[in-house]
Amino acid sequence: MPFIFNIDKTTVTEGDIVELRWDCGAAEKVFLTIDNGFKSTRIETDRNGSKKFRLNRSRGKTILTLEAVTGGKSERKRIGVKVKRLKSTKAESFDNSQFRHARDTFARKPLRERWELLKPAIRTAWQYMPEKKRTAYKILGILLLLMLLAAIAPKLMELILLLLAGYMLYTIFRK
To answer: Which of 39, 84, 123, 145 pairs with 170 at a CA distance of 20 to 30 A?
Structure first.
């Protein structure tokens, strides 16, 4: 039983896409195996058709095998695809001396000047922050203030919590 099995490219670079085409006539079952040298994958497929594959990692050659089974007999065709390694690109080195200079200059400024430089960035970040996150920051700030107050003046803290509880009860029960 003759059958057709071909590919559009036999030499590719890692990451390229190849297209297989096949026609196995009256075959009962058809299997396609892809072996890249690291892993072999076998899938059952239609008697005829086409499929596109991205050939990534390979040990230099990927073997594609089509097996057609008819009446208990199997016939195979193989195609080898040479897979060239993708040339790695060198990352440009980053000269962070300007960053270091800016950081050091910022660090030498008095605290008040640093705060004035940071305020616009903080305002912008706060403006674009999701509402739930802003609420969480507000609650966290209040809790930190209460903890600080409890550490400094525990009796004053008790009074503040009592007043707060009273205000909440008043708000709940007022008509």
So the answer is: 145
Residue 1's pLDDT band (cuts 50, 70, 90): low
Question: How many independent structural domains does the chain possess?
Answer: 1
- CA torsion 23-17-86-39 (nearest 10°) is -50
Q: Both tokens of residue 113?
A: 């000047």
What is each CA distance from 46 to 72, 73, 167, in whole angstroms?
Answer: 17, 17, 75
Q: What is the pTM of this model?
A: 0.50
| Total Cβ atoms within 10 A of residue 62 | 22
67: in domain: yes
**Is residue 66 packed enough to be buried (19+ CB in 10 Å), middle (13-18) or exposed (0-12)?**
buried
Domain harbouring 63, CATH code: 2.60.40.1930
